[in-house]
Amino acid sequence: MKILVINSGSSSIKFQLLDMSSEQVLASGLVERIGEPMGTVKCTMRPGTEKQSALKRDLPVADHQTGMLLAVELLTDKAQGVVGSRADIGAIGHRVVHGGERFHQPTVIDSAVLAAIRDTVPLAPLHNPANLDGIEVALRLFPGVLQVAVFDTAFHQSIPPRAYLYALPYDWYEHHRIRRYGFHGTSHKYVAGECARLMGKPLARCNLITVHLGNGCSMTAIENGRSIDTTLGMTPLEGLVMGTRSGDIDPAIHVFLHRNLGLDIEEIDRLLNKESGLKGICGYNDMRDIHSAVAAGDRRAALALDVQTYRNRKYIGAFMAVLGRVDGLVFTAGIGENDDQVRSRSVQGLECFGIAIDPERNQRRLNEPRLISTDTSAVQVWVIPTNEELAIARETVALVNPQEPMKET
Ligand code: ADP
């Protein structure tokens, strides 16, 4: 069966078509700058094979429906396309950022589910409307095709109240749903499943700490295969130091900024989300730029690296305390998969807690899962590339064929 995975943003649509009999990616593409005077649609066909080819069109893309139609045009291109027609697509999996407390697992989309996703818009005002646009367009363009919503928050719905409740007036939780939800759940669940498989142990018996370090960063404590705590909160701003997002700060800083600098709440929101994190400290949000700057003697860049990796270490320690026994620590996403320095600094000094990485293994550059801890480390440390599209496609297949057990991810 061929599964189309759609990640619809406010001005972009990422899409991937997978053949799930082999889990091969048939095509991977992006529609960009929707609603702007000039947009782009591009798609790589049969990536990573001898037959790889690319198609790209620069043209105005008025709205998501136009964008999706253009994506379908490339996928069904007479010369280079990977499917004959829309009818070849068996099911569609949509990434949805926020599922609130309603969605604990991937869900087949019907009108009630659409309404419930709409209900969560106040919790994710930037993301869920864009996700909904993608779903509504796909429902129109692919009538009768089963469509599934896979939520970034769903994996974390197993977190107990003591970890999801903020120490705030309780009716804010009851009436306004103010609590920790956590994000990146599809990625944490996927790498946890891969780690369990690689360790040769059922996921349901694994205690893991998964560390997703990309532009957005988060860490999850997983007990017996279930998320029991995570660093991102009600919104994707809390916790670790991210590319442009602050992570944890004293909440009274908002008040200080308002009272003393006269900043209004919209501006504070923008500054904490877009101008903080690594970028706020040193001016660069891309870790590769930070390493170049450090090499050139930039002290602020060195400080940014220090602040980020210290915060990582602090949370690893916290989650070890939460879990007690830890079988595996997994690094994933752009920085986690590629940056040996961030990895080694994030676990520096943790040998006394049973975490020891092997410098040579850590420095190997391979785009595949690999063990980087020493043979005597009590906690196995892994680098596992995340693959959210494959995870969404697997979840979608599992709902199309509910009688077949889902592949252990
Ligand atoms: P997103 O959260 O947008 O999905 P990614 O997972 O792609 O982000 O991660 C993006 C981050 O990965 C960037 O900050 C970039 O600095 C970092 N990154 C990518 N490749 C490397 C590399 N070779 N070394 C260090 N950092 C890298």
TrEMBL record:
Protein origin, superkingdom: Bacteria
Specify whether Transferase is a keyword of the entry: yes
Which keywords does UniProt give here? ATP-binding, Cytoplasm, Kinase, Magnesium, Metal-binding, Nucleotide-binding, Transferase
The record's catalysed reaction(s) read: acetate + ATP = acetyl phosphate + ADP
Q: Where in the cell is it found?
A: Cytoplasm
In this chain, ATP is annotated as bound at K14, H212, L213, G214, N215, G216, D286, M287, R288, G334, I335, G336, E337, N338
* Cofactor info, note text: Mg(2+). Can also accept Mn(2+).
For this protein, the record's Pfam families field holds: Acetate_kinase
Record-annotated active site: D152
E.C. number(s) listed in UniProt: 2.7.2.1
First-level EC class: transferase
Give GO terms: molecular function aspect only. kinase activity
> What pathway does this protein act in?
Metabolic intermediate biosynthesis; acetyl-CoA biosynthesis; acetyl-CoA from acetate: step 1/2
Name the cofactor(s) required for activity, per the record: Mg(2+); Mn(2+)
Gene3D superfamilies per UniProt: 3.30.420.40
Residues reported to bind Mg(2+) = N7, E388
Site feature: Transition state stabilizer: H184, R245
Return the similarity comment: Belongs to the acetokinase family.
Q: How does it assemble?
A: Homodimer.
The protein's name: Acetate kinase
Q: Which organism is it from?
A: Desulfofustis limnaeus
Its organism's taxonomic lineage begins at: Bacteria, Pseudomonadati, Thermodesulfobacteriota, Desulfobulbia, Desulfobulbales
Which gene name does the record give?
Answer: ackA
